[in-house]
Amino acid sequence: HLKMGISRTIREALYFETVKLVTVKNIKLGFIHKTLQFLVIVYVCVFAIWYKSGYQGHSDIDGVVFTKVKGVSMSNEPGNPVYDASDLVIPASENKAVFIATRKLTTRQHRGTCADDSVPDKNKCVSDRDCRTGGNETSNGYLTGECDNSTKYCVISGWCPVENPNLPHTEFSGIQDWTLFMRSEVSYVEWDNSTFNNGDKTEIGYNIFAVHTMLNETDVKGALHTGAILRVSLDWTCDLNVGGCLPKYEFKRVDNEGNSSGSIGYNFRDVQYITQNGKDQERLVTKYYGLRFLIEITGQGSKFDIFQLVITVGSGFAFFGAVTLLTDYLIQYLHPRGKHFDKAKRANLEFEKETNPILIDDPNRPSSADESRFFIPDGSLQ
Fold this sequence. Notes:
Layout: H1 2-13, E1 21-25, H2 27-51, E2 56-59, E3 61-70, E4 72-75, E5 82-84, H3 85-88, E6 97-115, E7 141-148, E8 153-160, E9 170-173, E10 179-188, E11 193-196, E12 208-210, H4 211-215, H5 220-226, E13 228-235, E14 238-239, E15 248-253, E16 267-276, E17 279-298, E18 301-304, H6 306-317, H7 319-334, H8 338-345, E19 348-350, E20 358-360, E21 371-375
Parallel strand pairs: 1-21, 13-17, 14-18
Antiparallel strand pairs: 2-18, 3-10, 4-5, 4-9, 6-8, 6-9, 6-17, 7-8, 10-11, 10-12, 13-15, 16-17, 19-20
């Protein structure tokens, strides 16, 4: 019996199942089925193909950008010397970034000891006992254990005098009217298609932008005073079927995000050493405040693709099978005559050797192996 059971199980596993056509003569069920099919067609045509551009293939981009800054500025130094981009763009060339100095503070220092009065109410002392040694340090040097009687600040060993942020700074006027020229070129890697934004002209708003425009609604005066970091986005999203694409520019200040006053602005220090007798005896420390532009290229290309259209249509119309399954479920499990519908759908057909196919079926089921028609009165569907 075990051997026969195993043999039967193997045979049944190898049987082939196919769909049997059953026509359900019920207007309400038919209306539900056709309505669901119509919604699937609307989804495929309107949403998947038209709204989501399911007929188009997409490509990432690979782009480069070249920048050039122009402008002149007058400083508040004695004699009001004039500075231009060669003086205030630091460094002269940078990958996808530009820095324009708006003000600076230069301190001439030498190695030695001095009072660290760079931060008010910090490192203050009354006597030497307030200035402990033993590895203690400030941001400018190591404590010597001495208290400077004239300033009442602890003495450090380091570069002296320490930088004093309260001293007058060198200001550069007119930076808000400087301009940034951006020439960019991108290629859509899937189709080896390139485009650029400087082929025929250079003008304000096309590929040249004034600093005050890029600062947008930001406090221009405050940004020039504390410095600022701005993200410049060139969006090269393009429909290549239309052609003639140009980037969309977006400027956003990012250093003031989070509303943390301690992190607002942008500055850095540059050092020049003065060598005497082969040793660095002195140095000039210049703290630059300014505008740092971080440039990024984003976007993607789209183009008609017959294979993408076939995939979109095929995946969308796969929902037709789900519609039929849902309707079958409504009849089989929610309709009072669902059991009869289940019987009408099932039939066993056995092929014997050298004989015609034999339909093995329940007498109550329809006798045709090709098609069954199952009638459900409309009034019975509630």
